[in-house]
């Protein structure tokens, strides 16, 4: 087992410098840009396709050579020229169904030679760096660089990540899955074939990982199934309680595990969500009657307070926080436990793994975590073309295993730089899990959350399709999941979410998800499928969504996806069923013309004629008899048919009139509704225009307010405002009163000392009066001195308070 972290910082550590700001000279003038529909862009054409090797030939996932920064830039990797194309796009222009792309596009060239075939690109959260991954190499390209001598070309700084670990010739370790962390712009998560999950911080060290988790799902020597110890994929959790600190690990036999907590050092999280987790641990953990739950919650609270020190300072600080940064911290006497395997649960019994293997064919190939409302959905894809959809039936809690100390890497000031630990499974209770158990009996006991089976979807892939399956969620409709495979793209929409429906008060029966084929790359049964080399899900702020695909022949496909009516399928089907039933009822009750009449009169079968029929004349007896017989047959057939038609038309005339009147009334109602919709549309457009103008004016006022002096000063708290008001009153009233009293006493003293009574008292030598006046003078002097001291002391305090307030305003 390998621990790559040392106790001191190694010499020669590679540390990437911050990416330079984009140069104005790199931008193409707007006058030179031409805008094409994205599918007609000159970059995407069969003429530019080359005979390069297929990236999916040996990969574990379908190749994806396209990326989107979430705004207005689309990236496409050119496998032939080994360069990256940056295309500026406009979503929903000129109409909501299309996407415009600028030509010419920028060409981003790596500043180092790429000696491997790239089969996946992925962009980080803020769009500053892009991942170039292949079977034989891993690079990160910073998307802002220096201009090249070639037109529309930028040379970008490119670095190699983990080359000493993954691509060493002496110890070749394959990378199974690579993904950017959703709460950091510089952290990469990598799962490798040596059953180790590593997190790299590109802003500190690109060669050595920041955190290492050695996965041991079973005890050594106790596994009879090799697939149980082979990981294949991982997925980061979503923005829900402890899910955001969780990593879901999928193994080849379909078993799922969780490691929690896993937090990149320096990642940023929302303050209110961290506070919610802290309060939840104190409410449901510390107050539990189970000593094990109290111990687990105490460890979680200690970890939260050390990782987010703002939780301890929140009582004394009245400032409002919006985001907090995770500080480097690891428990010194415990390692994070590997929770699992996650077991299936239902109302009475749990689902055995043997039953699961009988339903899903092959081996597990990929997994996806999706947060939909209050439900955490875990999707597992199998090589046989099945998707296993499960919801977490309980909340995730952090679990540590005592007695397994981690290895730490610290600097000279004992600051943690990295950590490595062994993640072993903890012995769990194998009793039957039921949904009707009270939450207080299972909370904070260290049990892994069970899985509630939602559905198993069979994609019915052709036999010629490979087992490579990738999944992604719709950016606008979280209930929709896109599944990408060699046969094309399928859409799976979830119509039943147990905890979300329960929270909203809906009591709906469990419904199966709807499956729709979005794009098929199998042109026929006789030909082999042509897998996609790139796929993206785009969306804008107006509620529009698109699917963009790149074929092996370098053709671009753009498909607009429905968003507002995706979840209305069941309601629409119910309405259609009701309408169909009503129509059938009306048709059965009011039949206008029977089918017998609509088919026309029956064919007349003439009686067999004699051979000498043509020789008969109409005046003869035989001729008259034959004509009479013919007339009788025609009368019975056609005249009776005409009478039936006349009778039925006369009988059904009122019903027909009623139906016509009803149709006319419905037409009038629809016309009225259309007029009302047009009037509302005009009002809505006016309201939108007013809202846009108001928004513009508010933005302008906000900019003006921000430019005012002192706009960024922190306002005083209520206690500080009360104290300042008291000081103002004191300085404005009481100090003035003391000053006037002192001046009056000084004037009286001077008048008394220079008055003629004082002179006469000296001349006459009256000792009693002199003694009395001397006492009064001494009292006045002492009072004056006291008042002077009080005045000077108060003045000094006021000046100190004013200077402190002034310094605080300047610093804020």
What would the keywords be for this entry?
812 residues; alpha+beta; eight-stranded mixed β-sheet; six-stranded mixed β-sheet; 31% helix; extended; translocation
Write the topology of this structure.
Layout: E1 34-37, E2 66-68, E3 73-78, E4 83-91, E5 99-103, E6 106-110, E7 118-123, E8 129-134, E9 138-142, E10 146-147, E11 153-156, E12 158-160, H1 163-166, E13 175-180, E14 187-192, E15 196-201, E16 211-216, E17 231-236, E18 247-251, E19 256-259, E20 268-270, H2 271-285, H3 291-307, H4 310-313, E21 323-325, E22 334-336, E23 338-339, E24 344-345, H5 353-359, E25 364-372, E26 375-382, E27 386-392, E28 400-402, E29 407-410, E30 416-424, E31 451-458, E32 469-473, E33 480-485, E34 488-493, H6 498-503, E35 514-520, E36 534-539, E37 545-550, E38 556-561, H7 569-589, H8 595-598, H9 621-707, H10 718-753, H11 756-764, H12 767-811
Helix pairs in contact: 2-3, 10-12
Structural class label: alpha+beta
- Low-pLDDT ranges: 1-31, 50-54, 347-358
Overall residue-averaged pLDDT value: 79
The Cα radius of gyration reads 42 Å
Strand content is: 15-25%
The percent of residues in helical segments reads 25-40%
Assembly level: single chain
Strands, total number:
38
Number of helical stretches of at least 4 residues: 12
Distance between the termini: 52 Å
| Molecular shape | extended
Sheet bearing the most strands, described?
Answer: 8 strands, mixed
